[in-house]
Design a protein that fits this description.
The complex is a heterotrimer of chains A (249), B (325) and C (306). Helix content of chain A is 39%, strand content 24%. In chain A, helix 3 packs parallel to helix 5. Chain B has a domain of 214 residues. Chain C has one domain: ABC transporter involved in vitamin B12 uptake, BtuC, CATH 1.10.3470. Chain C has a two-stranded antiparallel sheet with strand order 1-2. In chain C, strand 1 and strand 2 form a beta hairpin. The chains are: A alpha/beta (249), B mainly alpha (325), C mainly alpha (306). Chains B and C meet through helix 5, helix 10 and helix 12 of B and helix 4, helix 9, helix 11 and helix 12 of C.
């Protein structure tokens, strides 16, 4: 059974079809990259998969269960987490608090009104663990807004990981980074690979082709090809539609 | 290390709690001062100020920590005040029962109106809470059994576990202070708890909260109800202090003044809300000594504070003292 | 009974167009400028006071109106320049507080200048008296004139918004502020214009009702909150919504107060009915608002806020 199964998904804004009869299967354990030119509908797809927006029609199955109508929070509880293309953190919280809150979401009730949450070692420990994974442990007590852009991207990843997802939706985790930051993040993703099923949207083609087990190419809301990196590179339709210039260059 | 890289200002938080205790200590000494200066009226004003401090602190829970600008909080003061009047008329005189009834009515009203308003954002939320507050106001205006528009005088103050302890202004004052301190401790725990962290999270970034698996609505509504219940206690005290109730307790001007208090003190800071209530009401009293038209000057001060001192008075204090180490 | 119904229907209509005049400007301020203005009600009140003053001064309704409107406009522009303009890019909370301060200043200022006693404005000679409608039913001409003027103003607004360049900018601004800025329109000037326009409509409404209401210091506040209900029901930024919302609120309020107790009397004894009716009637519009919001959180014609 596929981990995630998307069946005939459709969504339109007025006359503009942003998702056009899209079907997709993500197998357990794989890192499945989705690439496509700007405006192909990649982020819109992520918002539908994560529950931030609803498709007009079609079905999304997660581990065989229909989650099309579920909200974002409910999907997170089933094990589906996402990161945001534009960093979305709690700027007034510390780095540790940002992650601890994500841990808290899965750890029992949050309708507890008296015990100081800052002293809950279970939350702090789990959060520190995630921060160590992404290399932010030494900045745990800084205010999140004080971090550099590259560190924001790491924090974004740590928060998503802290919800203990079975499937991770990563919306351009490398966005706006370069050089060492980008390399470090790619190394991080490489480390996650195989441990958590991942859907990756990314513009950095070097990263995509080095990380992905399979790649789907999205053009104008439709998937025109799915295959291994080698197959995608060799696919003539993909070359003309998308990779054209890059591949010949 | 630059300022931005400093660890979270736990020191500042402790400083604020300390500031609250300074206010409480001064408040405890006020009756002595009133006796020395032979001005018992100070204690009466003091009770009013402490009652509004309770309401402002309650409002800050949702406004400061949950970014919900409720413009209808005077309604809860009204529920508190009318609980005293209505129950007393039917022979139920104890303040504990008055407070219970006030909180029960407030909880129901806050749950219903909150469920509708919290689904909206920004300007809508402000206007809808204002409208619901006004609805409650008109309900009591048309309640002719309790004097309608003019209100009614209370025969007696609430009893205090069967005794007539509260008949003395001094004991009412100290009971109010005790309630304020108790609620402050409670609210301080609340904002530092799991629940408080989720609530503060919804203020910072709603989408992020959903994306880690929280449904903000439940937490916001719970906070809204808690805040309403807490505010109603202020109403019970105010009715006892004035020995009079009227819909004027719940006019939208009072809701506005509560917001003013919270902002004057600096939002998202319980001590600030208490300080804001003290400052706003003292300002009213002091301007009132010189002119009947205190509202004119109060309005001017308010606009100047908004335009030139973001962060309110505590923001001002912090800027004057410079960044803390 | 039928006569009473027609009478109350007309009263409701008159109240409705009035609410519309006040709400129209405010909904644009809310929708396009994303600005919370609590001071709109007191501006309406200032309109009425200026009207009372100028009518008393000149002895003429028409002259009074011709002086009151520009004077109100000047006042509105002054307020915009001194306070409002500095708040466009501030948080809603700051806007609420500063305009709340304005409410305090203006209502107290009005008390200082005009005193606390209500003023009255005579109904103009030409529009005094009543005319026969159906059978024995009489209705004051002046109230009919208010209805006619209000409907005319609504029509003009409709044409302005839907068939002129300014209207196009307004509609574009309501959906996408940045786009309007990109068109090379001076946003600050557009805002000033919208604000002034809203003030003028509110003051016009204030001036129009001066002869049938007593002009007093509380008049702005009761209207302000009903105006909010109208805007919330209609959807922020929608003139069409404001029109429908205003009529709905006015009708429910007017008819509810008269017919609520009558209807209740059918199901309970009459003294209870009138008590319950009197208690429920003022709450009806808020219950209506709650019901509409429950079904449509963005109002009848609102844009999605998410």
């Amino acid at each position: 059974m596929s981990m995630l199964s998307v069946r005939n998904l459709k969504k339109a804004y007025g006359a503009l079809k942003v998702t056009d009869d899209l079907s997709l299967d993500v197998e357990p354990g794989e890192l499945h990259a989705i690439i496509g030119p700007n405006g192909a509908g990649k982020t819109t797809l992520i918002t539908q998969l994560s529950g931030q927006s609803r498709p007009d029609s079609g079905q999304i199955l997660f581990e065989g269960r229909d989650i099309t109508r579920l909200g974002m929070a409910e999907r997170v509880h089933l094990g589906l987490a996402r990161s945001f293309q534009i960093t979305s953190i709690l700027p007034g919280f510390t780095v540790l608090e940002n992650v601890a809150l994500a841990v808290q979401a899965k750890d029992g009730s949050s309708f507890r009104f008296f015990a100081p949450v800052a002293r809950e070692e279970v939350l702090n420990k789990a959060a520190m663990h995630k921060l160590r994974d992404v290399g932010l442990a030494d900045r745990a007590h800084l205010k999140a807004s004080a971090l550099s852009h590259g560190d924001h991207r790491r924090l974004e990843l740590a928060i998503a990981m802290a919800t203990e997802p079975k499937l991770l939706l990563l919306d351009e985790p490398l966005a706006g980074t370069g050089g060492q930051d980008a390399e470090a993040l790619v190394a991080l993703l490489l480390d996650l690979k195989g441990k958590i099923t991942t859907v990756l949207i990314e513009h950095d083609m070097d990263a995509v082709f080095s990380l992905a087990d399979r790649i789907s190419v999205l053009v104008y809301g439709e998937i025109i090809a799915t295959g291994t990196p080698a197959e995608i590179r060799a696919n003539p339709a993909v070359r003309t539609a998308y990779l054209g210039e890059e591949a010949t260059a | 290390m630059s300022v931005a890289e400093q660890p979270m200002p736990r020191a500042r938080m402790l400083g604020r709690t300390k500031a609250a205790w300074v206010i409480f200590a001064l408040a405890a000494l006020l009756p002595a001062f009133a006796a020395l200066t032979n001005d018992p009226f100070l204690t009466v004003i003091g009770t009013r100020i402490l009652a509004f401090a309770i309401a402002a602190m309650a409002l800050d829970l949702i406004l400061g920590y949950g970014a919900m600008v409720s413009f209808g909080h005077a309604a809860y003061i009204g529920f508190g005040a009318y609980s005293v009047a209505i129950l007393s008329r039917y022979g139920i005189t104890d303040i504990s029962l008055h407070i219970l009834a006030a909180m029960a009515v407030s909880a129901v009203f806050a749950t219903i109106t909150g469920a509708i308003s919290i689904r909206t954002r920004g300007i809508y939320f402000i206007m809808i809470t204002l409208a619901f507050g006004q609805m409650a106001y008109f309900f009591f205006v048309s309640l002719s059994a309790f004097g309608g528009d003019d209100g009614t005088t209370l025969a007696d103050r609430s009893t205090f576990f069967g005794t007539r302890f509260l008949e003395s202004d001094l004991s009412l004052y100290y009971v109010t202070l005790a309630i304020l301190i108790g609620l402050f401790l409670l609210a301080s725990r609340l904002v530092m708890s799991r629940f408080g962290r989720v609530l503060t999270g919804t203020r910072e970034n709603m989408t992020r909260m959903e994306a880690v698996g929280f449904r903000p609505f439940r937490y916001q509504l719970t906070a809204f109800v808690i805040s309403g219940c807490m505010t109603s206690i202020a109403g019970v005290i105010l009715a006892n202090q004035a020995e009079f109730i009227s819909p004027a307790f719940m006019s939208w001007h009072i809701s506005g003044e509560l917001i003013v208090m919270v902002v004057l003190g600096g939002i998202g800071n319980l001590t600030g809300a208490i300080g804001g209530a003290v400052i706003a009401l003292l300002l009213e009293e002091i301007i009132g000594i010189f002119t009947h038209h205190w509202k004119l000057y109060f309005g001017i001060i308010l606009i100047l504070v908004v335009l030139y001192s973001p962060g309110g008075v505590s923001g001002l204090v912090e800027r004057i003292r410079g960044p803390r180490k | 009974m039928t006569n009473l119904f027609i009478l109350q229907l007309l009263n409701g209509l008159q109240f409705g167009v009035l609410l519309f005049l006040i709400a129209a400007g405010l909904t644009l301020v809310f929708g396009i400028m994303d600005f919370v203005n609590l001071a709109h009600g007191v501006l309406y009140m200032v309109g009425a006071y200026l009207m009372a003053t100028f009518v008393a001064m000149t002895g003429s309704f028409t002259l009074g109106m011709l002086l009151a409107i520009p004077a109100a406009l000047v006042f509105g522009l002054l307020v915009e320049y001194l306070v409002i303009r500095k708040l466009y890019h501030r948080s809603h909370l700051d806007q609420v507080l500063a305009t709340f301060g304005l409410v305090m200043i203006v209502s107290e200022g009005v008390k200082i200048i005009w005193g606390s006693a209500p003023l009255s404005v005579p109904v103009p000679e030409l529009l005094s008296g009543s005319i026969a409608l159906v059978g024995p039913l009489q209705y004051p001409v002046y109230r009919l004139a208010i209805i006619a003027t209000g409907l005319l103003a609504a029509l003009m607004l409709y044409l302005l918004v839907n068939h002129t360049r300014i209207g196009m900018l307004l509609r574009a601004g309501a959906t996408n502020q940045r786009m309007v800025a990109a068109l090379g329109v001076n946003i600050t000037r557009l805002f000033t214009m919208i604000f002034a326009f809203g003030v003028m409509l509110a003051c016009f409404a204030g001036a129009m009702v001066a002869p049938i209401l007593s002009v007093d210091t509380g008049m702005g506040e009761s209207v302000l909150i009903l105006t909010f209900v109208v805007i919330v029901i209609g959807g922020i930024g929608s003139i069409r919504g404001a029109f429908l919302g205003a009529l709905l609120v006015a009708m429910v309020d007017t008819l509810g107060r008269t017919f609520g107790p009558i209807l209740l009397r059918m199901v309970m004894d009459s003294s209870d009915a009138s008590q319950v009716g009197r208690t429920l009637a003022p709450m009806l519009v808020y219950i209506l608002m709650a019901a509409i919001l429950f079904a449509k959180p963005d109002g009848l014609f609102g844009r999605k806020t998410t």
